[in-house]
């Protein structure tokens, strides 16, 4: 009888104990620029240069063999830190196809991110299409998921939107583009 009560208590308490949850975010963005294909592709295929336009990057570290580790600034609300995203990706670019593809590197950080840029020449310059999907492991109590998951998705989408805006600005510069 006592063991049964203890087991029930453990089950009830386990719902409120720190149990991480995952948040998955998928984004699709595109933009057109008057910059030629070679300029746009060159910028997007250069991981550290392209990454310098992504907001709130604390560190972008080369791991060798086309792999890069990303560490983003902590996500917080007021004075409370909710999460820091850390992940690594392997990058491959194919100029003929106009693609830059990144795939997750297992075992690094608390997120898994993959995606691609596809650059297409158009009559007036180029079009660049971004696809990215990431899953972040949030090390907070599971009951907070309903409140935090939408905020985390919104923040990631905001960062991606700023990234695309920063790239558009760089590619629209008359002396295009210089190292940042």
Describe the structure.
The strands form two sheets. A seven-stranded antiparallel β-sheet has the order 1-9-8-7-6-3-2. Strands 4-5 form a two-stranded antiparallel ribbon. Helices cover 31% and strands 42% of the residues. Residues 5-14 have low confidence and may be disordered. It has a single domain (18-172), classed as START domain (Alpha-D-Glucose-1,6-Bisphosphate, Chain A, domain 4, 2-Layer Sandwich), CATH 3.30.530.20. It starts with a helix and ends in an 8-residue tail after the last helix. With 180 residues, the protein is an alpha+beta fold. The chain has helices spanning 2-14, 37-45, 47-51, 145-172; strands at 21-33, 57-64, 67-72, 75-77, 80-83, 86-94, 99-104, 111-122, 125-138. The longest helix is centred in the last third of the chain and has 28 residues, at 145-172. 21% of the residues are buried. It contains four helices and nine strands.
